[in-house]
Design a protein that fits this description.
The chain is elongated. It has one domain: Metal-sensitive repressor, helix protomer (Methane Monooxygenase Hydroxylase, Chain G, domain 1, Up-down Bundle). By secondary structure, it is mainly α. It contains 3 helices and no strands.
């Protein structure tokens, strides 16, 4: 992950964790089911937005930027066809 994306992603994760904790409280308080479902939908949307951000960063840094002078520290050396296969796998898992 690009270093400039990390604080933004961490902020999103903290908000998502707060939303999930809110859902737990709502269930404990026996809140109206539709209100809980709305919050679940909000968490899904927030996770999707985070996933899109991470996928975009991965494509920019690890796929398009692969082989540049500043590769990601955790990136494995791969050939273009391997990079494409990894991207396909990441997309298929994310889009399930």
């Amino acid at each position: 992950m690009k270093s400039e994306l990390r604080p933004k992603a961490q902020g999103r994760i903290k908000r998502i964790a707060g939303q999930v904790a809110g859902i737990q409280r709502m269930i404990e308080e026996d809140r109206y089911c539709v209100d809980i479902l709305n919050q679940i939908s909000a968490v899904r949307s927030a996770l999707d937005a985070l996933g899109v951000e991470l996928l975009t960063g991965h494509v920019e840094c690890c796929v398009i930027g692969h082989g540049t002078e500043a590769p990601h520290a955790k990136a494995k050396p791969m050939k273009p066809d391997q990079l494409l296969a990894e991207l396909r796998t990441a997309l298929s898992r994310f889009l399930k």
